[in-house]
Design brief:
Strand order of the largest sheet of chain B: 6-7-8-3-9-10
Largest interface: A-B, 33 and 39 residues
Helix content of chain B: 25-40%
Helix content of chain A: over 70%
Largest sheet of chain A: none
Number of helices of chain B: 11
Bound molecules: adenosine-5'-triphosphate, magnesium ion
Structural class of chain A: mainly alpha
Shape of chain B: elongated
Shape of chain A: globular
Number of domains of chain B: 2
Distance between the termini of chain B: 48 Å
Order of helices and strands of chain B: EEEHEEHEHHHEHEHEEHEEEHEHH
Strand content of chain A: under 5%
CATH architecture of the largest domain in chain B: 3-Layer(aba) Sandwich
Radius of gyration of chain B: 23 Å
Order of helices and strands of chain A: HHHHHHHHHHHHHHHHHHHHHH
Number of helices of chain A: 22
Number of strands of chain A: 0
Radius of gyration of chain A: 26 Å
Oligomer: heterodimer
Number of domains of chain A: 2
CATH superfamily of the largest domain in chain B: P-loop containing nucleotide triphosphate hydrolases
């Protein structure tokens, strides 16, 4: 090595200075959530009895698959935190490391920055080793902050050694995935490719962990997340899997160094395979182009919405058993209704899922503005394609996105609910409660069309409207938001079916408003300059 | 009837008048060169012609139809190559060419393959990996493979190497022979000089000159070099003489086209030993229209 590491220190300081805020925010947000959870557990489940009830609701394979195994026999506050939080936080830390590592390495290289830096008196390996140094530091800081933070909470059952292991497990996971990501950054030729490759490793590791823990097989040792779930801080305090994580991280980092020494700047080991020399028979219309360009995004959102539905659905079982054991609480929440508890909660869950389903719809429509800004609309409109046809295609895809994503979440909820509930919700109930949200989603897409058609520079305002709706409706009950404020959002007009009957006037009105907005947007788009 | 007819075209962006009464026409089978300094309004004119921008005043028709209201109909017979070719990074060049062909309507598969070979383009690569020149080739192949009647090309060769530029020129000559029309905006004046039948010069949104190269030359100065028998001290005083410099035994200067006769009469009195003349290049013409004439002419002479 020697000269090849020249300037490593300078470069490390440079990365930290340039990305300090980013690093700081990651560490702070992960730490805050980690420290807030045991505190709120202490509030919610102050006695061991209550925690034991909670432990019972956790005793199902869906939960194990999601958060891993836990010490349910001695479900102390510490064991509870580890069980419900450690694995999911580890995933977040892994994500942080992947994004940062690719940003520091392949993204820099792709943008041509590395070329400039290497032309200075900086060694060949320095950009990579500086990136690894920074990530090592970030993970170490995170581990120490969590150790000190968790210890200082002074919660019973959360001792210092457990806190240290908790912090080190997360730091070790981070280092492992930093190593994975820098190797991927050597293999792939683009930042996008490197991130996708590392994400495949992340998702794969999670899935192996899930099935390994559910079947209690040795498979868990194949996955870093399996190592994470074997530590069990605050109960078993089994530290040596952390050694695996750290050593593998360092080995992966060294492998990345060796790989980098063998390749040219800007190239990779996985070469982009030659694509199609001809377009497929499908890619012939503007609509096909929209779908083709968004297919990856749409698929990822689809999987995400299904998982969201599944995870909401899996809570329904717990909800049932929780309220069955506590009549007083049940009465308080559901206002003496004789309907099942799950049905009472359904409109709220559906509302949240509909909000989230709106996002891919709006994103799909906003791609039209993105295309315009990137100057690619000229080439399409310069051909035999009318503006109505072009924008119509985007609106269509946006609406389909909303409908499909919302229904996928409902499907997930129904599937999971069926397997965990004693009295499952009927398919009609679930999809009905989901479908009443659709007119509101349509209005949001309408607002977005209107902005794109007549005031493209302001098209992002629709996000503000979505945030406003979310705050007034979802958090509204907490903040005592007046009724009229909620009614300013289309979601404020959606019926809380099945708790109340469907207001067909309101639903029809929303659809009519959505249609009018889209039509005005289309007219505006036909009349305005393409920027 | 001209294929493309523009009269009094005006376009403002906010308060800024980008086009101020532009007039010109392109006839059938003609290659029209569209030149002017940066920011003169060439791309703006072209984007109005494509129906991407809405004009504020004037008329603009292609094939006798209005460029704004009949855009889709017109585009059936138009091929457009933008100056900045922006393509979708995750589609291959081949996919983009085919997509453009299907959006156009007619697909000429044989011609597509010929052009890909001619332009030496690897169509199986993702557009993300293409250089500027290669992206331009994608747009050029898509354009010349179409059965368009009018080609609208906005600085199509700004990223091409000299070899590819030659291929491009051949393509333009071929479509011209086939009786089709071309509107070519370019900063490469030798290219315009070689390809174009008529030229329009635009400056600050105003068409300052249009005509054939011969017509434009007539309006401009001739470059002269003379050696005289008897010393003539007052050549610089003759009306119509510009840029006078002593060069070796003689004088170099430019003469206004319409003053040539008077100047020659004067010179012949002093006994002409040697006379060389050169027609103005398009570059001279261009320089003459755009400000800094002296500075650049002197730099060129020394
Ligand atoms: N969308 C727009 N908004 C505001 N001003 C614009 C817009 N498009 C063009 N302009 C302005 O109009 C003028 C003409 O621009 P145009 O792109 O037509 O020039 P050009 O002749 O093509 O120049 P170049 O040779 O550099 O390509 C420029 O001053 C430009 O800044
Ligand atoms: Mg231009």
């Amino acid at each position: 090595m020697g000269r090849s590491m020249a300037g490593n220190g300078r470069l490390t300081r440079f990365i930290i200075r340039r990305d300090f805020v980013r690093l700081f925010l990651w560490v702070v947000s992960i730490s805050v959530v980690t420290l807030a959870v045991p505190l709120s557990f202490q509030e919610l489940y102050p006695t061991q009895e209550q925690r034991n009830v909670m432990a019972e609701t956790m005793r199902n394979p869906a939960m194990t698959a999601m958060v891993g195994p836990g010490n349910l026999e001695h479900y102390t506050l510490g064991a509870m935190t580890t069980h419900q939080m450690l694995l999911l936080t580890a995933v977040a830390v892994a994500l942080m490391n992947i994004l940062l590592a690719v940003r520091f390495t392949r993204a820099e290289e792709e943008a041509g920055m590395t070329e400039m830096i290497r032309s200075l008196s900086i060694g060949r390996s320095s950009p990579l080793s500086a990136a690894m140094t920074v990530l090592l530091g970030v993970n170490a800081v995170l581990a120490i902050v969590l150790w000190i933070g968790l210890t200082s909470l002074g919660i019973e059952g959360m001792g210092s050694s457990g806190a240290l292991l908790y912090g080190l497990t997360l730091g070790g996971t981070g280092l492992f995935f930093a190593g994975v990501a820098v190797v991927c950054a050597q293999l792939a030729e683009s930042a996008r490719g490197a991130t996708s490759l590392a994400m495949i490793v992340l998702v794969g590791s999670y899935v192996i962990q899930s099935s390994g823990n559910v079947t209690e097989s040795v498979m868990i040792w194949l996955s870093p997340f399996g190592w994470v779930t074997s530590v069990q801080p605050f109960s078993e305090n089994n530290g040596w899997p952390i050694v695996f994580l750290v050593v593998s991280g360092v080995v992966l980092g060294s492998i990345a160094g060796i790989l980098q020494g063998k390749r040219d700047l800007g190239s990779g080991f996985i070469h982009q395979k030659p694509g199609r020399a001809h377009a497929s028979a499908f890619l012939k219309t503007p609509l096909a182009l929209v779908l083709r360009l968004q297919r990856t995004g749409i698929s990822i959102w689809a999987i995400g919405m299904l998982i969201l539905g599944l995870s909401y659905g899996s809570v329904l079982g717990d909800l049932e058993s929780f309220f069955d054991g506590n009549e007083l609480l049940a009465n308080m929440l559901t206002g003496n209704s004789d309907r099942p508890v799950a049905e009472q909660f359904l409109p709220m869950l559906m509302l949240v899922m509909a909000f989230i389903a709106t996002i891919p719809g709006i994103l799909a429509l906003h791609k039209l503005v993105g295309e315009e800004k990137k100057g690619r609309v000229d080439s399409v409109l310069g051909r035999r394609v009318s503006r109505t046809q072009l924008m119509g295609g985007y609106v269509f895809v946006a609406v389909m996105n909303g409908v499909v994503m919302n229904s996928l979440a409902a499907t997930g909820l129904w599937l999971a609910g069926r397997s965990v509930m004693a009295e499952p919700l009927t398919i009609a109930t679930v999809f009905g409660a989901s479908a009443v949200q659709l007119p509101a989603i349509a209005v949001m897409i309408g607002v977005s069309s209107l902005l794109i058609g007549i005031a493209p520079r302001w098209s992002s305002l629709v996000w503000l409207y979505i945030v406003y709706s979310f705050v007034t409706l979802y958090l509204g009950s907490l903040f005592q938001v007046p009724d009229w404020a909620a009614r300013l959002s289309p979601f404020g007009w959606v019926s809380e079916w099945p708790s109340e009957s469907v207001n067909w006037m309101a639903e029809g009105g929303l659809l009519a408003i959505a249609a009018v907005l889209v039509v005005i947007g289309l007219f505006g788009y036909r009349r305005r300059d393409i920027l | 009837m001209p294929i493309l007819d523009v009269k009094g075209l005006t376009k403002t962006f906010g308060k800024f008048k980008a086009l101020d009464g532009v007039d010109f026409e392109v006839k059938k089978g003609e290659v029209f060169g569209f030149i002017g300094p940066n920011g003169a309004g060439k791309s703006t004119t072209i984007r109005v012609l494509l129906g991407l921008l809405k004009r504020d005043a004037g008329t603009a028709t292609i094939f006798g139809q209005d460029v704004w209201s009949d855009a889709v109909e017109i585009h059936r017979k138009i091929a457009y190559v933008p100056g900045d070719v922006n393509l979708w990074p995750n589609l291959t060049g081949g996919e983009v060419i085919d997509l453009f062909a299907s959006l156009q309507g007619e697909v000429n598969g044989k011609r597509r393959e010929e052009l890909i070979v001619k332009f030496d383009l690897d169509t199986s690569k993702k557009c993300r990996t293409y250089s500027k020149g290669n992206r331009q080739k994608v747009a050029l192949v898509a354009a010349f493979a179409s059965d368009a009647e009018l080609f609208i090309l906005d600085e199509p060769t700004s990223g091409l190497d000299p070899l590819m530029e030659r291929v491009f020129q051949q393509c333009v000559e071929e479509v011209k022979e086939a009786g089709k029309s071309v509107l070519l905006s370019s900063h490469i004046l030798s290219e315009v000089e070689r390809l174009c039948d008529r030229v329009g010069i635009i400056r600050s949104g105003v068409m300052v000159e249009t005509g054939t190269l011969a017509e434009l030359r007539h309006l401009t100065r001739l470059n002269l070099y003379v050696e005289l028998n008897s010393p003539a001290t007052d050549i610089g005083q003759i009306p119509g003489v510009h840029e006078l410099v002593k060069a070796g035994d003689g004088w170099k200067f430019q003469v206004d086209g319409d003053k040539l006769d008077a100047v020659m009469t004067y010179l012949s009195k002093h006994g002409i030993r040697r006379l060389e003349s050169a027609p103005p290049t398009l570059e001279d013409l261009f320089m003459q229209h755009y400000g800094d004439v002296t500075g650049r002419a002197e730099a060129g002479d020394s």
